Amino acid sequence: xxxxxYVARRTxxxxxxxxxxxxxxxxxxxxxxxxxxxxxDSAILAGHGFIEPPFALGHECVARVVDIGDAVTAxxxxxxxxVPWSISCGTCGHxxxxxxxxxxxxxxxxxxxxxxxxxxxxxxxxxxxxxYADAMLVPLPAGLDPVAMASASxxxxxxxxxxxxxxxxxxxxxxxxxxxxxxxxxVCDIARALGAVEVLYVDPDAEHRRLAEGxxxxxxETLEPVRHGFDLAVEATGRVDQLALAVNSLAPEGVxxxxxxxxRPGELPLxxxxxxxxxxxxxxxxxxxxxxxxxALAASGxxxxxRVVSHVLxxxxxxxxxxxxxxxxxxxxxxxxxxx
Length: 340
Prior knowledge:
Layout: E1 2-8, E2 11-16, E3 28-36, H1 39-45, E4 55-56, E5 61-68, E6 80-82, H2 93-96, E7 128-130, H3 133-136, E8 138-139, H4 155-169, E9 174-179, H5 182-193, E10 198-202, H6 206-214, E11 218-220, E12 230-236, H7 240-247, E13 250-258, H8 270-276, E14 279-282, H9 287-300, E15 311-314, H10 318-321, E16 329-332
Parallel strand pairs: 9-10, 9-12, 10-11, 12-13, 13-14, 15-16
Antiparallel strand pairs: 1-2, 1-4, 3-5, 3-7, 3-16, 5-6, 6-8
Helix pairs in contact: 4-5, 4-9
């Protein structure tokens, strides 16, 4: 089979690899049908990552089950499933506590799409081995388009976690979104659907702002701190200066969720944060734990993740098209999965 391999800045290529096979009773092999780039993939392709190439890329996809071990009961060959980005066993203490990105049965940070915590391959591959099929794979709900939900492995479900629990605790909260990619747009859609009284989306990209306005958000090209302006801030830029602006706009006891990958150091206004009583969370996301809830929201029809998909492209176009600057391209192997 082939796996798409990151080899240099803005350069990827197909490389041959052995076909993955079911090695034990609890494993599965899947074939991606709709895969997309995560916001962090854009940073890696631009040369801002911290891992030297080459390595197999991709950690967001909906796939079709090809083969399963004898002990797998949750899925069957032919099923469409979401493949979470991190490897998790489902039975260790961390997994039982919902900390699936910190599974104790595998090396720390075991994941698809980067050689961290072992070599698990990438989801831009013709075939993928899933070591804990019952724990990891989540059937795609009937009626959901794999193209629209290709990002459920990470960015879509992460976006749900960034806002949904907070809006449940603070109905009608004011939400600030400082972003550069798909996460911020998903957050706008989810926040409005779940009752945010106000959403301000900040992004220098005019097309991104237009999409955010379609989700009911106010928009701005840049942010001037709005003292005590927002109950919840979501930062998804990977820039510490933008994170600082976000936390400086929080109301007393406000919460900031940082979904940016901060490859470069910077300074935060810690004294101001202390005086305001800010809660700041910067964390890997335990996607598998809340993936069913995120998919349920998508299936409800209250949100429209398909509007964030910028391009639907053929699988064979991956080497030339992935390094281009697209918001959220989805690469498909089964044309029947695309939207009109």
